[in-house]
Amino acid sequence: MSFLERVSFNHATFGPTASFRTFLETVVETGAGGVGVWTERLDGLSPAAAGELIRDHGLAISGVNRGGFFTGSTTEQRNAAIDQTLRQIEATAELQADTLVIVPGGLQPDMKDIRVARDQVKEGIARVAPFARDHGVRLAIEPFHPALSALRGVVNTLDLALDVCDVHGEHVGVVTDIFHLWWDPGVYQAIGRAGSRIFGHHLCDWKLDAVDPVADRGVMGDGVADIPGITAAVMNTGYSGWMEIEIFSKDDLWTMEPSAIASRCLGPARVCLEEAEMLRKI
Amino acid sequence: MSFLERVSFNHATFGPTASFRTFLETVVETGAGGVGVWTERLDGLSPAAAGELIRDHGLAISGVNRGGFFTGSTTEQRNAAIDQTLRQIEATAELQADTLVIVPGGLQPDMKDIRVARDQVKEGIARVAPFARDHGVRLAIEPFHPALSALRGVVNTLDLALDVCDVHGEHVGVVTDIFHLWWDPGVYQAIGRAGSRIFGHHLCDWKLDAVDPVADRGVMGDGVADIPGITAAVMNTGYSGWMEIEIFSKDDLWTMEPSAIASRCLGPARVCLEEAEMLRKI
After folding, report:
1. I need a surface site. Which of A2, A108, A217, A266 has the fewest CB within 10 A?
2. Partner A contacted by B147 (CB < 8 A)
3. CA B222 to CA B106: how far, in whole Å?
4. ipTM value
5. Cα(B212)–Cα(B117) distance, integer angstroms
6. Whole-prediction pTM value?
7. What is the pLDDT of residues A132-187, one digit of tens each?
8. How far is B208 from chain A (nearest CA, A)?
9. What are the distances in angstroms from CA A86 to CA A94, A170, B32?
C-alpha cells in the first residue's frame, strides 16, 4: 500500500472554520485517501448524504468524531452522554464509516476521585457496546494525555483503555494518538498488548514548549515525541489501517490556508512513516 | 504530633519576589514548623548562615531545592548538571538539612527518545549518590506530571522514580507531590511500594481548568485531585515527615500578600490532613 493510500487528514487539522466541502477538496488535492470527520461539521448535510459526498470524492472515512464523555456527577448527565453516543453510533453507520472515536470524559468540580470517573467510562462503554455491534460500528477509545485527564479523558493510558476493552468483543478497541501516548513509560508494551484492537493511529507531536494541551500541538518532527518508534510499534502489531494526521494547532497551522496546511503536514508524515518502516526492518 | 508541627511551607508558595527573611517571618507567624528552601533565594547568605537563621526562627528545613536536571544532548551538559548537583548536596549539608529535592530533567529539541533521557537520569543519580551518602544528605527524586515531561521531568511516574531508587541505598528516595501524581492509575500501589523511601510529601491541587502546569497550580480543595486519599496512602506507609505546602500560583496566590497567602493555604491543608486521618481509620 502506498504512502498516500494509507494517509488520512482529520478535519480538525484545518482549524475550526474550514467548511466540510473545503476540507474534502483540500484532501483530494493532496492525493491522501482518507478523512476523519466530525458529525457537527458536515455543512448541514445528513450523515448519509455526507457519506455519499465523501465517497464521490474518492475518499474513505478513517474515523468519526465523536462519542463518549461518559463521566459526570449526576445520573442525568451520564445518561445524556450515553444517548448522545447512541446517536453518534447511528450517524457513523449512516456515514457508512466503520469506527467511532470515543473520548472518555473528564472531571467536574465536585468529582475528586478519578477512579470513580474511570468506572463511569467502563459503564458507559458497556451500555453502548451492544448497540454499536448491532450497527456494525467499532468503538475506538482514545486514551488522553494526563494533561487533559481533568478536562477530557480520565482514561489516560493505553493500558487503562485496554482494560476497558478487555471485557468486550472485538469491535471495542483503541486509537493510538502519539500526542496522548508518547510520555508513557509503558506505551511500547501496551501497544503490543493492544494487538488487533488498534482501530486508528493519529500522527502529531508534543512541542517542547507547548502552552496548551488542547490546541497547541505540533506537526510531526516539531516536537519531542518518538513518532517513528511508536508508529513502528503500532505497525508491528499487524496494523494496516489509517495514519491519520490530527493536529490541533491554533497559533500555527490554523493561521494558514487549507492547502498550505496540507503541504505542511504531508512531508513530515511521509518522513515519519518511512522512519517507522526502517525501524521495523532493523 | 500536632497539625502545625508537621506542616511546612515552600518558599515558592509565596511567589518569586518574597525575600528569604520575609518568608521565614511569615511562616513563623503561622505557627508552622518547617520551610522548604531554595539555595538561590537565601538573601545572599551562605547556606551555613541561612541554616542558622532558620534555626534561630525555630524552624526546621523540610527540603532543599534543588538538584538534578540530569538530561541533556551533550556530555558537557550532563556533566555540568552533575557538578551542580554535587554543589547542591554540599549546600544541603551546610544548611544542616537532610533532604535535597531532585528534579529529573526534561528534553531538548534534538532529544526525541524519552527512554534515553530516563537512562541519563539513572546515570546522574548513580554518579551523585555516593557523594550524597558521604555528606549525610538524602536525595528525593520528584516524579513530574507528564504535562511537564518535556520541560522538567522525564521521570513522570512514582514507579519510574522508584525504579531509579531501587539500585541505591536507603538515602535515595522520592517526593510524593500530589500535583504531579494524582492522575496516575498506579499511584496508590506505587505509594505502597515506596514504603520508607518517601522523603517528602507536597500538598497542592490540580485545577480543573489549569492553563499552565508550571505556575497555575491550585490550593488544596480548589481542584480535582484526591488529596486526602493520596495523603492517607502516604501516611499508611508509616510516613511521619513533613506535609509541605508547595503551590506555584502566578495568577492567584502570587498576587496576594505573604500573610494572606499563608492563611489561604493553612485552612485547606488542615482540612485535607484531617480527611486523610479519617480515611486511615476507615
Report:
1. A2
2. yes
3. 28
4. 0.95
5. 23
6. 0.96
7. 999 999 999 999 999 999 999 999 999 999 999 999 989 999 999 999 999 999 99
8. 6
9. 12, 18, 54
